[in-house]
Amino acid sequence: MLAMAADQPKLGAMSVMERIVKLGRDDPRRIIHSLKVGLALTFVSLLYYWRPLYDGFGIAAIWAVLTVVVIFEFTVGATLSKGLNRGLGTLLAGALGVGAQHFASLFGQIGEPIVLGFFVFLLAAASTFSRFFPRIKARYDYGVLIFILTFSLVSVSGYRVEKILELAHQRLSTILIGGATCIFISLFICPVWAGESLHNIIVSNIEKLANYLEGFGGEYFRYEDRENVDEDSTHNKSSSLQAYKTVLTSQSSEESLANFASWEPRHGKFSFRHPWKQYLKIGSLARQCAYQIESLNGYINVPTDIQVAIQFRRRIEESCNAISSESGKALRILASSIKTMTNPSLSSKTHIENATAAIDELKNTLKTGYMESSDLLGIIPDATVCCILIDIVKSVEKILEAIEELGVLASFKSVEPTVSPEKSTQLLHRGIVNPLFDGECGDHVVIMVDNEVEVGKSQGLEGKPSNGEMVCK
């Protein structure tokens, strides 16, 4: 018992170390950010440690340390947002506080506190009310809060302090030093861009939806004895298929990153006025699709012993597999389009068209005699799955339209359609017209003679050789 009790602290320490290591491995940027904050705090602490600097700023140097602790955030955009809000709020409030103090002093010793109290009440009430405006709340809420705090401190403390200008100057200077230190280190030492993070999150979310749709058919259309695999399939599902659940809760992080990204300067492939709001639209459509997938996921591993239902499921299997697979492929291409910042290729539309054709085939199946069966309750779950898949295709079409709009706003590059050499060879051997040409036959003809290609003008050719094959090109 004593030995077990002695091992408990060791096991607890090992568990903590494992969690720390895992946290660092999951995102090494967290370690770098921690070191950057430590560096910034060490730098501004010199205002206290170095005597010449302390003689210049005095006790007000503590505001630089507090500024670093408060405004240094993980991303560049968040640091810039807080830093600029704090700097502007402090500057404006300091100027108004000094002005209010000077104006109130004109009313004498009796009237001065009354006037100061009136100014504090008026500006505090007006500033607090402005925080209810959505745009101000989203972008300038921290600045308004600092404005209220600084104005109150300057106007109230200035009533008992003679050197009000010196006090305001020291506080403003130290706050600007702390803010500038944070912004400089955040920008130039291993920067973490909010815009890039938002870009990657949207790409990752669409890929997660694609993974699920491409693997849905294999999970749903299984006809073995499900009673023996229900427990394992429930607890040991592939993480790639269940990763879509994180899309359902990504709204707050996307909105926060989009707000911070709007503060960031040009970086990498992103301009200063990059259309971040369009990413929010795509993210909203992706969540809509994820909710439909959540409904679809509820029908996986639902046991059925009704023969009519099994027969019906076999009838719809091919169409449902085609719908989910083609939708997944379209989403994967769209995710790649955002990732590479290129306009969606025609293949994404082709996959959506294939899914639409499969929907038509599925509707014909649903109109067969099974719908007139006396055992309708047995086929309702499968019919519901069909309806959800149809809605998912509509969601994929909306995502495509939103990405095409993003391509226009962000000036995505266009990718010229190409045909791989292997596919081109197969087309020639099969005698298929090159799909890159719209006409039935152009000015040139490709002739296959003993597996060799000869190109010639179409004019003057009276027919194809006896041992060859003529293909229009």
UniProtKB/TrEMBL annotation:
User: What GO terms fall under cellular component here?
Assistant: membrane
The annotated topology with respect to the bilayer is: Multi-pass membrane protein
A GO biological-process term: malate transport
- Residue ranges annotated as transmembrane are 31-50, 56-76, 88-108, 114-133, 140-160, 172-194
| InterPro entries attached to this UniProt entry | ALMT
Q: Which UniProt keywords apply?
A: Ion channel, Ion transport, Membrane, Transmembrane, Transmembrane helix, Transport
Q: Which family does it belong to?
A: Belongs to the aromatic acid exporter (TC 2.A.85) family.
UniProt-recorded name of the protein: Aluminum-activated malate transporter 8-like
Q: In which organism is this protein found?
A: Cucurbita maxima
Origin organism lineage: Eukaryota, Viridiplantae, Streptophyta, Embryophyta, Tracheophyta
- Gene, per the UniProt record: LOC111471225
